[in-house]
Write a structure and sequence with these properties.
CATH class of one domain: Alpha Beta
CATH architecture of one domain: 3-Layer(aba) Sandwich
CATH topology of one domain: Pyruvate Kinase, Chain: A, domain 1
Order of helices and strands: HEHEHEHEEH
Shape: elongated
Strand order of the largest sheet: 3-2-1-4-5
Strand content: 5-15%
Helix content: 55-70%
CATH superfamily of one domain: ATP synthase, F1 complex, gamma subunit
Number of strands: 5
Length: about 290
């Protein structure tokens, strides 16, 4: 049975841990609010652009742009977006489980963002092509390098498609590990709430929307589609960062609550031992007094 001194030491240690987790909770909460706002503000543009391009893909002439058709190769390129740091619950573990359980066609190569993504790919013994460190908060200029690399690999003709595995942010307590096809252009769901079909909003008559291109469709696509890829990757990074900070805030709040409950339990145990010690001393005094009478 532990002594009262041991219990006092444990109470002091748990209180110190609770102070640390509380501070981390407050820091994560501040970062979470900024990350959530940044992710939410970028969704309308990314979704509308994807929505229009999916419609154009279905109505465009064959061969008008390579991003509208499957690549010439038979391999799959996967971009895995995870966090740089831990202490965010099962966020990265669930993401890797999603990656492992997803059926991928043919040989697969990986590109990563985040130290936990590199560790996961290495632990799974998969082929890692490149890693791109993205600072927090994420900047578009940094992510654009990743988008350009993915496009170069796809257009080189070695890969059939490009997938992105990331944490889709729903709300503070709900994060969904998601696999989305980036190339060729495909419907993408961001935030888990908006899920549109393969065509843009059309009039009641059901006639598909028609677009006029100046100077021509090929020139417009050559300018718009690379920007679409870069922006979509950037939005997925924002979703992942919002998920990371939210998960860390929740994990640190749970750790703080558990530490406070442990302090209460240890305090109760300490008081019981102390009361038992006082009772024993009183019994010894009483017994000694009776022996002297």
């Amino acid at each position: 049975m532990p002594s009262t001194r041991d219990i006092r030491r444990r109470i002091k240690s748990v209180k110190s841990t609770a102070q640390i987790t509380k501070a981390m909770q407050l820091v994560a909460a501040a970062k979470m609010k900024k990350a959530q706002d940044q992710a939410a503000n970028g969704r309308p543009y990314a979704e509308l652009l994807n929505k229009v391009l999916v419609s154009l893909k279905d109505n465009a002439e064959e061969g008008v742009h390579p991003y509208f058709s499957a690549g010439k190769g038979d391999k799959t390129l996967v971009l895995l977006i995870a966090s740089d740091k831990g202490l965010c619950g099962a966020l990265n573990t669930n993401l890797l489980k999603k990656l492992v359980t997803t059926q991928l066609e043919g040989e697969v190569d990986y590109v990563t963002i985040g130290k936990k993504a590199v560790q996961g790919v290495t632990r799974l013994r998969r082929n890692l092509l490149a890693d791109f460190p993205i600072k927090d908060p994420a900047k578009f200029d940094q992510v654009r390098v990743v988008g350009k690399y993915l496009q170069d690999q796809f257009r080189a003709g070695e890969y059939k498609k490009v997938l992105v595995v990331f944490n889709n942010f729903i709300n503070t307590v709900t994060v969904v590990p998601t696999v989305e096809q980036l190339l060729p252009v495909n419907p993408v769901t961001l935030g888990g709430k908006r899920n549109f079909g393969n065509t843009v909003d059309t009039p009641v008559t059901g006639v598909a929307a028609e677009y006029t291109f100046e100077p021509d469709a090929a020139t417009v696509f050559e300018s718009v589609l690379p920007q679409y890829v870069n922006d979509t990757v950037f939005q997925m990074v924002l979703e992942s960062r919002a998920s990371e900070h939210s998960s860390r805030m929740v994990a640190m709040k749970n750790a703080t609550d558990n530490a406070k409950q442990m302090v209460k339990d240890l305090s109760l145990e300490y008081n019981k031992l102390r009361q038992a010690a006082i009772t024993n001393e009183l019994l010894e005094i009483t017994t000694a007094k009776m022996a002297l009478e």
